[in-house]
Design brief:
The structure holds three protein chains of three kinds.
Chain A: E1 13-19, H1 30-45, E2 54-58, H2 61-64, E3 84-87, H3 91-103, E4 109-117, H4 123-127, H5 143-155, H6 161-175, H7 186-191, E5 194-196, E6 199-200, E7 209-217, E8 228-237, H8 251-264, E9 275-277, H9 284-293, E10 300-301, H10 316-330, E11 336-343, E12 349-357
Parallel strand pairs in A: 2-3, 2-4, 9-10, 9-11
Antiparallel strand pairs in A: 1-7, 4-7, 5-6, 8-12, 11-12
Chain B: H1 21-30, E1 35-39, E2 46-47, E3 53-54, E4 59-60, E5 63-67, E6 70-79, E7 96-103, E8 110-114, E9 127-132, E10 143-148
Antiparallel strand pairs in B: 1-2, 1-5, 3-4, 6-7, 6-9, 7-8, 9-10
Chain C: E1 4-11, H1 23-38, E2 47-51, H2 63-66, E3 77-80, H3 86-99, E4 105-113, H4 119-124, H5 137-153, H6 157-171, H7 186-191, E5 194-196, E6 199-200, E7 209-218, H8 219-225, E8 230-238, H9 250-253, H10 255-268, H11 273-276, E9 279-281, H12 287-296, H13 305-310, H14 327-330, H15 334-350, E10 363-370, E11 374-381
Parallel strand pairs in C: 2-3, 2-4, 9-10
Antiparallel strand pairs in C: 1-7, 1-8, 4-7, 5-6, 8-11, 10-11
Classes of the chains: A alpha/beta, B mainly beta, C alpha/beta.
């Protein structure tokens, strides 16, 4: 694969963002939630439905309890008599695909919308149906148990690991504390119930309901300049069986990041990024993220708590992109950010996006 | 040739679905045998079921209009291969008639059962009327079926 | 959009039940055959797109488990699902990915293993407030629309039976097809068990286990990978409103397919479909739908579909052979069916159709159909 030179491609600008924000339980229907996110994103972009050329949605049928789950959102994403395709995976992967459509010259303006409602069912029970049904599922594993196995592998010969993770969790929780009862100290995290040893509940981002939408469009090179631009994207699917992988690293994220860096012209990630918004569902995953992406100590990570504000299935990665864009808009000094989505057992699949301002 | 190994897995999952405010209001109406549609300000189309947006005009739907519980048969069939009843998980006893019914006052059609199952006695354009249950729960099967008015 | 081409295809032998292969193995067989067809090693594939309606197998995120079958480990891999159009949607996604310049070679694999799930349960998970307590299901929905279509356009059960006969006879020359009935007759179709008036058993598509893959390459790679690449001249998608009752006179109007075709023909410079296309692979889940698609695709005027099939103009020896592969009526692994349409259209352009090859194909049409009225239209050409 030839890494595409960023300067050869049409620019892809994040023209608008919108979301419902994560809620432990959103009483609204899926179309209502997605409508809120899309309405906000269009208004933010100062566009109407008529300006959208195509839509890429993200939803997973089993999580929604609906066959062809994107049927439910067709009208509210403006896809009637329009092209729509649905990525049955993380919303940031849908954004990656939308960017491909724009780079391909197929469309100029693409709406991306993702949604999930963890409150509809027992999310972890649903994840069992994503695991190898012959060799793994019969053991009763779910994604959380797989994360536990990963954390357990990392904690071998690393007696300080759990303490560090508890401290990370405490910082993230404090950054988005809305609930006074939620543990914001490392001690409280370490005393919380075991979720999947050695992971404690306090180390896990709470699951939530939400919808997120983003408008991507190409603008002429002589455009506004300071728009946040999707400069590079990368994606990777690692091997499925936990035993086939080095569980102490997210090698898939290394590859995904390399691809995104090549596209964005990032030579050395250590001092390239002002901000990182990872999809880390458990505190130990932050260390895996930092090691795999190579972002340096000077990079601000999850300033608003990351997924600890609420982990919305399917929408999480896209919500990281929105968080990064909002932060960059509010801080002129924040010139380049890395947004990340992940899915599958112990980080089997990853997607990353490099966001920067105008021309590098 | 060796026998294939099979791994049987049973699936039992539950989801809680949110109806949305328009559908909630519609369902409340059903409990009183009232059917109502949402009318689009842009194209005037009166939609059943209710939903947040007119997909054609991309405008929010807000105006409720009353719909009769009788109308015209726009399409029909007689089902011999019953599908699973989504509520009970059991097949419905076949054969049974089904139709797409344009209720007076609505522009979309409603898919529902018919009390007639002889193809010789079904035709597009026939008038049909809802037969309601005694116990109303606020769901589309509060209507048991539509009877052909002869 | 930048020029891309389908340069290779591969598919499994489709059957009611492929007990002999697991889902990843099914995917591997199709993917492996496509790579052999292209003369490519797995490392040469830059990205993979997978199409599958996994709810029918009772699964989620299927690419996690089957991805290795598609040689996707260590690569970008996205999973597309849009009902019946999943396969064509995934192919179009593959076209976009190559045209983006990010990837030189993309493998698209669609699959379904209906025998390993419970499709009916999967399909029953429609809108819980509107479509479940009372529902016709896919078969019933077609039967309803067919009653309107017949009344409006004058097609008969015999016309539909001719479509069913054409499909299964064509399939007899396709070593991959599931239902192959070289001796099937119109009488047999009309005598087959009635499912939902007027649709009979032999009017309906089967449920199949199977997989199909295509290799997509960009302009600078295509010629090196294939003597006669099938160039993508147009790839257009249109989606529709979410409830069966929203769509008036569905089969007769089919506005999504009509508009997608209109736009695709504009992009591909097709003026007169019956004459300009040399072959068509259209997505017909039920015999009657093929007649409706003739009209929607402009092969004939509205009301003339019956005459078109009667005159044999869409038979293998006719003006525009439709579904030499046997179509969805002969083979239907849902996640693969759309890929099969594109693959079969492509191999006609490539001249690799074997016994089902239409002579001298320069321009081919492939369509996808799904949900109530979603439509994909793809035009492939030799230049």
């Amino acid at each position: 694969m030839r890494p595409a030179n960023a300067l050869d491609r049409r620019p892809v600008v994040v023209a608008g963002v919108g979301e419902t924000g994560p809620r432990p339980e959103d009483p609204r229907s899926i179309p209502e939630m997605v409508l809120e996110a899309v309405t906000e994103a269009l208004a933010d972009a100062r566009l109407g439905y008529g300006d959208i050329d195509a839509v890429v949605t993200a939803s997973v049928d089993l999580f929604d309890g609906l066959t062809a789950s994107n049927i439910a959102v067709t009208e509210v994403v403006g896809a009637v008599m329009r092209p729509e395709t649905r990525i049955a995976g993380d919303g940031l992967a849908a954004a990656l695909h939308a960017a491909c459509q724009i780079w391909a010259g197929a469309y100029d303006t693409v709406l991306v919308a993702a949604h999930g409602k963890a409150s509809m069912s027992c999310y972890q029970d649903l994840t069992r149906w994503a695991l190898d049904p012959i060799l793994v599922q019969p053991l009763g594993l779910d994604f959380l148990a797989c994360s536990g196995l990963q954390a357990s592998a990392m904690a071998v010969a690393d007696p300080g690991a759990e303490r560090r993770w508890a401290e990370t969790a405490a910082v993230r929780r404090a950054a988005c504390a809305t609930d006074a009862a939620s543990p914001c100290t490392a001690e409280a995290v370490l005393e919380s119930a075991v979720a999947a040893a050695p992971i404690r509940e306090g180390m896990c981002a709470p699951m939530a309901d939400g919808a997120t939408a983003v408008v991507l469009r190409t603008v002429a090179p002589a455009g506004k300049g300071e728009d946040v631009r999707l400069a590079g994207v990368g994606c990777d699917l690692d091997r499925h069986a936990l035993g086939d992988r080095d569980l102490c690293a997210w090698r898939g994220l290394e590859r995904a990041a390399e691809r995104a860096y090549a596209g964005a012209g990032v030579a050395d990630p250590e001092d390239a990024f002002d901000l990182a918004e990872p999809s880390c569902r458990c505190a130990h995953e932050e260390e895996l993220f930092l090691a795999a992406t190579g972002v340096g100590a000077g990079t601000l990570v999850s300033p608003s708590g990351g997924l600890f504000a609420g982990d919305v299935p399917v929408a999480a990665g896209l919500s990281r992109l929105v968080a990064a864009v909002r932060h960059m808009r509010g801080d002129a000094g924040c010139r380049r950010a890395l947004a990340h989505g992940a899915w599958g057992p112990a980080g089997q699949a990853h997607v990353v996006a490099v966001l920067d301002r105008g021309t590098a | 040739m060796s026998e294939h190994l099979t791994v049987p897995i049973e699936m039992a999952l539950t989801w809680r679905y949110a109806s949305g405010s328009a559908m909630e209001r519609f369902a409340a109406g059903l409990r009183e045998r009232r059917i109502a549609a949402l009318r689009c300000d842009g194209c005037g189309r009166r939609y059943l079921p209710p939903r947040p947006l007119c997909g054609n005009c991309r405008l929010p739907l807000a105006e409720w209009v009353p719909v009769a519980d009788e109308g015209a048969l726009e399409a029909w069939t007689v089902m011999h291969l019953p599908i699973l009843d989504g509520r009970t998980g059991e097949p419905r006893e076949a054969p049974y008639g089904m139709g797409l019914i344009r209720l007076d006052g609505a522009d979309t059609t409603v898919n529902h059962y018919l009390d007639e199952r002889d193809p010789e006695r079904l035709a597009i354009g026939m008038r049909v009327r809802a037969v309601w249950r005694g116990d109303l729960r606020g769901a589309m099967d509060d209507i048991l079926h539509f009877e052909v008015l002869r | 959009m930048r020029r891309v081409a389908v340069v290779a295809t591969g598919q499994t032998e489709h059957a009611r039940s492929r007990d002999d292969l697991s889902q990843p193995e099914l995917v591997r067989q199709a993917a492996g055959r496509a790579l052999s067809d292209a003369g490519l090693e797995p490392d040469a594939v830059d990205a993979v797109v997978i199409s599958n309606m996994e709810l029918f197998e009772g699964r989620a995120l299927p690419e996690l488990w089957v991805g290795e079958g598609a040689f996707a480990s260590g690569k970008p891999c996205l999973k597309v699902a849009t009902g019946g159009t999943s396969g064509t949607s995934a192919c179009i996604a593959g076209f976009h990915q190559v045209a983006s310049g990010l990837f030189d070679v993309v493998l698209v694999v669609g699959f379904e293993k209906h025998s390993e799930g419970h499709t009916q349960t999967g399909m029953a998970l429609t809108d819980p407030f509107w479509d479940r307590a009372v529902a016709s299901g896919a078969l019933g929905n077609f039967a309803l629309s067919i009653s309107q279509y017949m009344a409006e356009r004058g097609v008969t059960e015999e016309h539909a039976a001719r479509v069913a006969v054409k499909a299964r006879r064509n399939a007899a020359r396709n070593p991959h097809a599931h239902l192959r009935m070289p001796d099937i007759t119109v009488e047999e179709v009309l005598a087959s068990r009635i499912l939902a008036h007027p649709v009979r058993m032999l009017d309906m598509c089967p449920q199949s286990d199977g997989a199909c893959a295509i290799v997509v390459a960009g302009e600078d790679r295509a010629a090196g990978l294939c003597e006669r690449p099938a160039w993508v001249k147009a790839a257009v998608t249109r989606h529709e409103q979410p409830y069966i009752g929203d769509i008036d006179r569905r089969l007769a109007s089919m506005r999504t397919l009509r508009e997608a075709a209109r736009r695709a023909y504009e992009l591909a410079d097709i003026r007169e479909p019956l004459g300009d296309f040399d072959v068509a692979e259209i997505y017909e889940p039920v015999s009657y739908s093929e007649l409706a698609w003739y009209e929607a695709l402009g092969f004939c005027e509205d009301g003339e579909a019956g005459r078109l099939i009667e005159a044999g103009r869409t038979e293998m020896e006719g003006d525009l052979p439709v579904n030499p592969s046997g179509g969805v009526l002969s083979t239907n692994p849902v996640g693969a069916s759309g890929v099969i349409r594109v693959a079969e259209a492509a191999l006609q352009v490539m001249g690799r159709g074997g016994e089902r090859q239409v002579p001298g194909v320069e321009t081919a049409l492939a369509t996808g159909y799904g949900v109530y009225a979603w439509a994909d239209v793809v035009v492939l050409g030799s230049a």
